[in-house]
Amino acid sequence: MSRAQHFDPAQIDAIDHADTTGFNGGRMAATVLLIRDGQNGLEVWVQERVSTMVNYPGYVVFPGGGVDSRDFPPRSWDSGEFWAGRSVVSMARRMGVTKYKAHALVFAAARELFEESGTLLVVDDDGPIQDSSPFHDQRQLLETHEVSFTDFLAENSMKVDSDLLIPWARWVGSSGAKNWFDTFFFVALLPEGQTPDGETGEAADANWFPPRLLLDGWKAGLVRLVIPTWAQLQRLAQYDSVAEVIDAASLSDTRPVIGDPKDDPRYHDFFTTTPIDRITWRSHQQR
Known about the structure:
Blueprint: E1 2-3, E2 27-38, E3 41-49, E4 60-61, E5 64-66, E6 83-84, H1 88-95, H2 99-117, E7 122-124, E8 127-128, H3 136-143, H4 149-155, E9 159-161, E10 166-174, E11 180-189, E12 203-209, H5 211-219, H6 227-236, H7 242-249, E13 257-258, H8 268-272, H9 278-285
Parallel strand pairs: 2-11, 6-9, 10-13
Antiparallel strand pairs: 1-13, 2-3, 2-5, 3-4, 3-12, 7-8, 7-9, 10-11
Helix pairs in contact: 1-2, 2-3, 5-6
Protein name: NUDIX hydrolase
Keywords: Hydrolase, Magnesium, Manganese, Metal-binding
GO molecular function: hydrolase activity, acting on acid anhydrides, in phosphorus-containing anhydrides; metal ion binding
């Protein structure tokens, strides 16, 4: 497995407004592993991407996407204005990036999760948001890029709660369309009172699943996964509860995994298993 050298802590406070890319110039992206304690153990929220998507059509993924230029803070910024919870400097140390990039990545994670699942990881003057449905119309404006996430937060007197997003992993590589991405994975506990949905144009279906069930589906050729998603599911499958995952997240190695880690024994099954594509076979049978 190839990993980059760890970040120099002396650079945490550096703010270079021209430096908005990730490792080796890759586009920075954020992905959220939204988890809950289900009736039979740990469950994670995933969605199957529609067939028209440029990257990974038909694949099962976690909510997430690329960092928007407006996720970065303005040239003169106070991280406390739209930020609650663990400080941006603390998050930057944990993630191994500058506080400028940490702000953008946390905002991107919260924004993408809201856009794709309707789940809000924010607080207002009354505390955590427990019902995100009143903001559905504004969610659509975010999806179409008509408003920025900062505009949305300001309009509703909200702040992103960084305590609800825990750094989990970082993978760097090319997408299905050969675009280079530097993707940061976060774990998030489903906020009390909120219910995610699949009301996004990017997903053909979305729901809660036990991680092991998704991995079994992949092996049976019923679920399409790429290695970063497979790796996170494999790690989640080791735990039985949200509490166990949160504890494990505190020990996460957030140095980037570069490319396809074919030589790492943890990912041996992915690179040596060739599932029969029963999804394509089934669609042909139905015609």
